[in-house]
Amino acid sequence: MDHRHPPDADRGELDAVVVGAGFAGLYMLYRLREMGLRTRVFEMGSDVGGTWYWNRYPGARCDSDSMDYSYSFSEELLQEWEWTSRYPDQAEILNYLRHVADRFDLRRDIQFDTRVTAAHFDDTTQRWAVTTEQGQHLTAKYVVMATGCLSAQQVPQMPGLESFRGDWYHTGGWPHQGVDFTSKRVGIIGTGSSGIQAIPVIAEQANHLYVFQRTPNYSLPARNGPIDPERVRELKARYVEYRKEIRYSRGGSGVPAPTKSALEVSPDERQRAYEAAWARGGIGFGSTFTEMTINKEANDIAAEFVRSKIRATVHDPEVAEALCPYSYPIGTKRVCLDTNYYETYNRPNVTLVDLRKTPIEAITPDGLRTSDTEYALDSIVFATGYNAMTGALLAVDIRGRGGQPLRERWEAGPRSYLGIGIAGFPNLFTITGPGSPSVLTNMPVAIEQHVEWVSDCVAYLEERCLATIEPAPAAEDAWVEHVSELGNATLFPLANSWYMGANVPGKPRVFMPYVGGLGVYTRHCEQIAANGYEGFVLTAG
Ligand code: NA7
Predict the structure, then answer these.
(1) Residue of the nearest CA to atom 29 in ligand 1?
(2) pLDDT tens-digit series, residues 389-444
(3) Which protein residue's CA is at the shortest distance from atom 31 of ligand 1?
(4) Has this prediction a pTM greater than 0.85?
(5) CA dist., res. 60 & res. 201, Å (int)
């Protein structure tokens, strides 16, 4: 069967439309279909996978432990799936998601190569009218935006890009056939997680790699390798239970919660603990001590430890210094995990260009010009990130009650109750939307929690023959206030990060994720549901 055209493609009346077929959309479809709802998923890509469909750049790999980076709703799936490395790479995760789609026969309700352009709520019929780029018009009682937090690519407006005679790529839209950089002069712009993963791999292939760095990042060694069979056995012996436990953890992963403050132990003990975390590798470094992201003094110690490692790794002291981050506290931008990132600057074919000293002026037909040099390049890689958390939602023309555009509603920053619902936008749900723990957690775990909450909510409405649910404006205001208060009590607002919307020109500066932890948040959501969807307004049919 041609999966791009489901047999019921012409049927315009649906119970639910789901936008996106990544981790969130696939599971949402599974749950809604289980309830017997006529559901259609629209997906821009030609296959399932979301982030892992698009991000095929060299070195693309997950920063979460593979044993935590999967669905937990099916025990058979949990037990049977075998990961090969400590952190799964892009191809392996994509295979996993394809396997899930096939195993649960999800493809027949997914329409690929289809971008949803608009979703308008009709006050009279109380249904959503959904339009696709292909000109399809459908109606649905529910719309679930499973569009991802990091899916709207950002290619910076640089003068001259259209004149460039070579090839250019964004890491989040990598050609599926791959790119051969052999004997090429390559320039990469951006040193976030994507750049830091791609740089060592491209450097091995390219004739010369120029890294154009605006802000250095804190990167920790991943220490990736084959998965430890002993750990797999141990976890699989109690996998379901373990996965339930991590839903109530702070970050949705098995990283143990710290118990001590860096400031209450001796400098020797601190050093030993950081050395041990560095040797273990992974994001656990940030959980060595309790208050890294709330106390500047504790943060400074951790940051200096990482800088000392950079200096010890990079041979040229000037390059090492340029790679050392000073301008924001560690952890307030997404910490990166790498394999040989700093070591790569010891290669003779790699040059670091510090854009703080010599900013980019233009892309030229033959390369890139900074304020003091013109670099001849065959290829340019934009590892320049995303319009995070709101970009993909606002790319769709969403209008709620009275035709109010979401773009207008969110002009001063996203406003949402729990990061799930928006006042004035009935029966519209956002999976891991702004105001939920989302990007501060291990995503599949946060996604499962949201999808299950939303499907329980839909079941509640269906069982009671209710027409709509939406947040009460007062509850939404209080949640937005709470999210912002928690964020402001941390060091996060000190960084110009994508968490703050600071990487997109003109985007309101608001700390978007909920920083209180997934466990606290999950319990709160459960309580709200148990209290008959407290803070939401429900209307009869
Ligand atoms: P990020 O983390 O947003 O990194 C983007 C990088 O691109 C960052 O170093 C930026 O520097 C740089 N950038 C962006 N625009 C420009 C311009 N105009 N000139 C020079 N440099 C620029 O995106 P990633 O794709 O690496 O990672 C996104 C998330 O995916 C990651 O956090 C993980 O959660 C997975 P800046 O820091 O803004 O100075």
Answers:
(1) 193
(2) 999 999 999 999 999 999 999 999 999 999 999 999 999 999 999 999 999 999 99
(3) 193
(4) yes
(5) 10
